[in-house]
Design goal:
The complex is a heterodimer. By secondary structure, chain A is of the alpha+beta class. Helix content of chain A is 32%, strand content 17%. A 5-stranded mixed sheet of chain A has the order 3-2-6-4-5, with helices on one face. The longest helix of chain A is centred in the last third of the chain and has 20 residues. The mean pLDDT of chain A is 96. Chain B is of the alpha+beta class. Chain B has 3 domains: 47 residues, no CATH class; 114 residues, Uridine Diphospho-n-acetylenolpyruvylglucosamine Reductase, domain 3 (2-Layer Sandwich); 103 residues, Enolase-like, domain 1 (2-Layer Sandwich), CATH 3.30.390. Chain B has 11 helices and 12 strands. The longest helix of chain B has 19 residues. Chain B is globular and about 60 Å long. Classes of the chains: A alpha+beta, B alpha+beta. The interface between A and B is medium-sized, with 36 and 32 residues.
Chain lengths: 173, 278
Amino acid sequence: MKKNKTESLTAEKGLFTIALTLNGRPAEFRVKPNEFLLDALRAHGWKGTKKGCDTGDCGSCAVMFNGKPELACMIPAVTAHGSVVGTIEGVGTVDRPHPIQEAFVEAGGVQCGFCIPGMVISAKHLLENVPDPSEAEIKKALDGNLCRCTGYVKQIEAVKIASKKLRTRRASK
Amino acid sequence: MNNLRKCVFPDNLNAALTALGDRKSLPFALAGGTLSGKNIGPETVTLVDLKRLPLAAIKTTAAGLSIGALATFDEIENSRVVKGWAGGVLCAAAAKCSSQLVRNMATIGGNIARPNAFNVFPPLLLALDAKVTVAWKGVAKTFPLAGLYDGTLKKIPGRDCLITGIILPAASKGLKCAFEKFARTESSWESYITLAMCAEVKKGVIKSARIGIGALSAVPVLAPKAAAALTGETPGEAAGKAAALAGDLAGMRISPKSVEFKKEVAAALLRRFVVSLA
């Protein structure tokens, strides 16, 4: 007989304890019933994920959620229990930026920078699945990441540069 | 969500139905969460997270094309099987929904479970004559999609029962179809009118047609007058009959300020579709 793997969590003193894999490491958060993943991440110090519209429209809160970029502001925090989450902090650091982050700087794709973590998350997922994307594919992948500073031209250019960098790196290995 | 005390993560349908069936625990079922995640009311005490249920498969069966209720818009848009069905109209419709980030999360089951004028799948599935499989404790039932909205089901999906899948009849595979979401911008969630148009064309004659209308009412409706006007015609002759769609819109509650505009747009979109059939 198949073992029942149905899990359940119960709030204790008004808080749920959720266990997840965050940027490749196990993590445990105490979250409020009405909290969303975005707020939970930021409350626990992961502030690279930005809070923009909080209604699922702007994409600045994009995180990798079980293998796909999703909107952290739309995910009730308690439902992130058992999930694999990746934030911008897991992509690169100031000292060791990811080639996509380097490309955004090189292309001048960063102005105020608020939307960039979400854009990098979306771009990274695209380039992992489509190493040499067309401009249409880049636009489609980034269509949920709004930028109010630019006209998206330089960010699209950045993804093209990143694609080239990553392909060159792969070829040299 | 302030009063949430429990979250259940069922990994099988029975466990999900059991959790939902415990009415004293005031449960609320959540799938992709893009429509309802932000609207979980204070009455909810138990959240039933459906994401671990094995209900995302997309496959062909003897009955037709089977799409699991938890298949996301992104999965539908990129499915080879779906691309090969009815000219890939479901892929085209999935692509018209919001942004990539939303399409990664939103599920087809959630899209049809919560009646909303701007949901893309209800009018299209209605036009494709889709059936829906719904389960509740000890029962699994398949019935026409319209049953979700016309009271036939007598249950509320996500509360009293769960939508487990959608079946497109085998006959719909070869249909010529188009999906038009006429909105202010490409990425607008709202639309002035949404039309899903399907036709069976044999030897240059329209044998049958089904037209689903969305955006004008909370639930999608069919356009029987326009469908009847097109049936038996050749595409060239039928283009002129697209105006019959205005008759189908006449009975709907549309703002007097926009009714003429919407009638014109609808007729133009249908005419364009009919011309494409030639």
